[in-house]
Amino acid sequence: MKKQIAAVAVGAVLALSAGLLTACGPSGPDYGDRTPVRLWCQPFTEVETQDWLESHVREFNETESSVGGGYYIDLHWVTEDTWDATLKAAQGAGTQPEITVLNYAEVPLNSLNGEYTALDGYMSEECFSDLLPNMEEITNVNGSHYIYPWFVEPYSILFYRKSAFAAAGIGGAPSSWDELYQCAKSLKEKTEYDYGIAMPNTAQLGWVLWGFQAQDETDGYFLLSKDWSSVNVQTDFHRALFTAYQNIYRDGLTPAAAFSSYNEIYPLAQGYVPMALGGSWSIGQIKNNYPEVLDDIGYAVCPTMSGETAGKTTAALGGWGMAIDGHATHPKECGEFIEWLLGSDETHLMEFMADLGYSKFAARNSVEAALAGLPSAQNDAFYKFVSSEILPYAKPEPVYEWAVSEKYADALIQASKGENVDSTLAQLQSDLEKILKSGGQGTYPYGDAQ
Amino acid sequence: MENAKVRSAGETFAGRGEGLPRKKKRYKRGDTVAAYLCLLPSFVLLVIFTITPLIISFVLGFFDVKEYLGNSFVGFGNYFSVLAGLQSAAFYRSLLIGLEFIAIIVPLQLVLSFLIASLISKINRRYSAVIKVCIYLPCLLSGIVVGSIFAYVYNYHGGLLNGMLNAFGLGSVDWTGEKGWAIFAVAFAAIWNGLGYNTLIMLGGLYDIPTDYYEAARLDGANWWEQTVYITIPSLKNIGLYLLVSLVVSSFQLYEIPLVIVGAGAEHSVEGPIYYLYYQFQYSDNMGEVYAASLLVAVVLTLLSSVIFRLTSSEKSMD
Amino acid sequence: MKNAQNITAASAPAAKRPDARRIILRALMWFAGAVLIFIGLFPFLWVVLSSFKPLTEIQSIRFAFFPKKWTAENYAALFAGANRYFPQGTSFLRSVGMTLAVSGISLVLSLLFNSMAAYAFARLEFPGKKLMWTVYAMNMFIPNIAILIPCYYVVSKMGLIDTLPALILPGVTYIWSIFFYRQYYLGIPRSVEEAALIDGCSRLGIYFRIFIPMSVTPFIIMGLSVFQGFWNAYLWPSMILIDSTELFQVNQLLAYFRNTQGTHWDLLLAGTVIACIPLIVILVIMQKYIMQGIKISGIK
């Protein structure tokens, strides 16, 4: 046994020295004794996002303001699985980064806890006046901006196979929930597909349907009243939405258990369903992994309750941006970098949109305007469709705590399994009232909220 | 002279009950020094990396933890919130589910691993080596990977299990989405994941039973069943206790597998205590509450285990 | 040397005459063994085979055991192109070496320190024993999450963030293995060490000369699971290794294939298979010692 232990020990030492030796391979550029300003970002599925950020950070570190200012941006990638734990631990020990890339919807409530430094003092006024109106609404908390948007991704968008629509003799995309049901029904009955549509039905429903909830024209804020003082779910609107969902499940128009996560569009691309809900990122997945079916993919705005879609909110606006930590020691430098990267020169973001195949969108008027003159953007039908028909009317995600949205998902799942709609909504009403009464706040779906 | 010495030494040993302190205990200096030397390295690491953090989280359990605004003392507020406040329903539900996992997994694991270990110990060497390696393979995979594999096995569409059902002309079952099935689906995956490890431990225990016990029994005409009941099982007491406690704790703490394979509609029927804690960890804006809840989970586990220790009165060695 | 294996009547000389009942029993055991091999191997094999499928086939909802189109591209990408997915300064191969080193060192320390503690608890009498055991045992029941962030705090105050010791030391004292060795040592008859004690061997000497050699079986069983615990670790390494990319652990790196909007299953499966190979090699080498263990510790 001693021999074995010795062998293991020798092996370990050998492996370690081998590891350390190879460690002397290529690493990042050397910035001498300039001060590092740390930036943390989650890796995104489209690796082009990483490439773009890394190359621009390198570029910034060669600029006058970085060299002359004696600092450089020190970029690190922290995986989604471990992001929460790592950030919370680092905040506790004071080793957190000065700039973080965040889903902007979690910023308003967290900013109340002092987690971020207001950007206004460190970035110029023009950066903020350039924001799309619907982004201004969410980045501005009590008069200060705490996050600067990088890109937005509207969802849900209705995707379908043109060939299936043709085979079923369907002329155009459904515009009301009733039509959606009829459309799914005839797709199931008149084509070879086993199902008519892929619908999300997991806890993801909590955020997937924000775009639907935002269509409720009664005066409120998603599921709550405008001032979050009461619950707003026992309405005709939600009754109709629940019933539509229930009918689609009852008649087997959608699989009882979803084929895939809502984030993934492959059930449509692989031909398991003729129609699916997705986000703007879905087109990126199709372009990358299933280019051969791209021509057969049609898209349209999501149907509404009334059937009127022009100029109406049909989607929620997911998105990411950069925030400066509340305890940052170099807020001025952070501001300089964010303004350089995201807030001034449009070409940075235009390159980004192009790299990502126009599946992500800018949240600035000037970038939108510049893209309007760019042939590659103008020739991209999907980009034109989203930026004209969806983006201007999309509504930012709700910023109240995740528990509220999660209860909604629970209730809708029950309804889709056949529970009575009215009693489910009554139960939801009382569950949400309990949450409101407890005065809880600030719990967000991290990472899920894409 | 010599014999007397041996006998007295032997008696001294035999007279020493493990962990049951006598009224007047006399310690040998050499033993004491040796014991402390043996404990030193593990104890130092334990204090630095486990006990200190534990004290920190115990203290923070009494605070509303806000990293940026400063912590404010809330007394038992966090504990109240978990035990009787908004969190209580979810917390108790998670404990109950933990108990359900114990009830399903522990007996099955113990019986299966014992049977398999007996089987392995009785067949020829080369074949048993292959079996050992094969049933240990699943243990090499992390919970996330096991979850992913079983997500496919249980998949409603074209999953292995439904494929088999369909072959017999039966309809598909939503294994992970129906409340009644989901907990068994998770438990089965967990058993698959842990069986090899438990079997190996059983096997180690089996091999260490002196053969003359069996020889004596056979001379007395004992059959396999009698040998198992009167020799094998009592001899496995120490190892069995380890297995029992570790299985109870690990089943209660099941987290990664349900996280990956749970389907729509059954979310709340497979969320055990650790699942609950991770959820709170992710979404709560007061870590103090998470610390309070996790210490409460620790208390429940300690109680459970002390019941087991009491029932099996394990402390005695068996020489 | 007789051992539990020989109990089987089939191998006893008396059983030379074919006996229908015995043959059936034998066949049944072989059959049961085959079922076990199948259950253990099948999902695992399926993972291995899937790692040779292109992404579109992995995403297919129709269950297929064998790839329709075999491809080694996933593996090729893992060693070459996947650097795009990983943070700068990391490489998959190096992370494998680094994880091997970390797990190996941790394993040796873990076996030594924990079995020493177990020996003290199982065999020695000393003041404060009961209290000490309570302190140790208490830690068996603390959920990891309770100490995760405070432990990071301690490590960072010690200046160990982004260092090798921070990867190794916090996991070395493992109460479950102390408990396991203790239970094992309790089962060893006291007569074993009596002679040595009479010969004037010290208590520590007995541990090193008698107990360690007798611990082959528990060391291998526990060692496998300890090694594997370090090998599969990814939450803790991800938290404490941010800047020092050269120390990145293999499962920490594989997590870069799982993102908000989806998982690169093709690369992840290939990576998972590679990450299992060292464990399988160790398992195959070590399994025979579980048998040998009895040759030393089987006491007549």
Tag the structure with descriptive keywords:
A: 450 residues, D-Maltodextrin-Binding Protein, domain 2, two-stranded antiparallel sheet, 11 strands, 46% helix, B: 319 residues, mainly alpha, MetI-like fold, 2 domains, two-stranded antiparallel ribbon, 14 helices, 2 strands, flat, disordered N terminus
What does the model show?
The complex is a heterotrimer of chains A (450), B (319) and C (300). With 450 residues, chain A is of the alpha/beta class. Chain A has two domains: 22-77 and 98-153 and 318-379, Periplasmic binding protein-like II (D-Maltodextrin-Binding Protein, domain 2, 3-Layer(aba) Sandwich); 156-314 and 398-450, Periplasmic binding protein-like II (D-Maltodextrin-Binding Protein, domain 2). In chain A, 46% of the residues lie in helices and 14% in strands. Chain A has helices spanning 2-22, 47-61, 64-69, 80-93, 107-112, 125-129, 133-139, 162-167, 177-190, 205-208, 210-213, 236-250, 266-269, 280-289, 331-343, 346-355, 365-372, 375-378, 381-390, 402-416, 421-438; strands spanning 35-41, 71-77, 99-103, 116-117, 140-141, 144-145, 148-161, 275-279, 297-301, 316-325, 395-396. In chain A, strand 5 (140-141) and strand 6 form a beta hairpin. Chain A is globular, with a radius of gyration of 24 Å. Residues 441-450 of chain A have low confidence and may be disordered. Chain B contains 14 helices and two strands. Chain B has helices at 2-14, 29-60, 77-83, 88-122, 125-140, 143-153, 160-167, 179-207, 211-219, 224-235, 237-252, 256-261, 273-283, 287-312, and strands at residues 63-64, 72-73. With 300 residues, chain C is mainly α. Chain C is built from 14 helices and two strands. Chain C has a two-stranded antiparallel ribbon with strand order 1-2. The interface between B and C is large, with 116 and 105 residues.
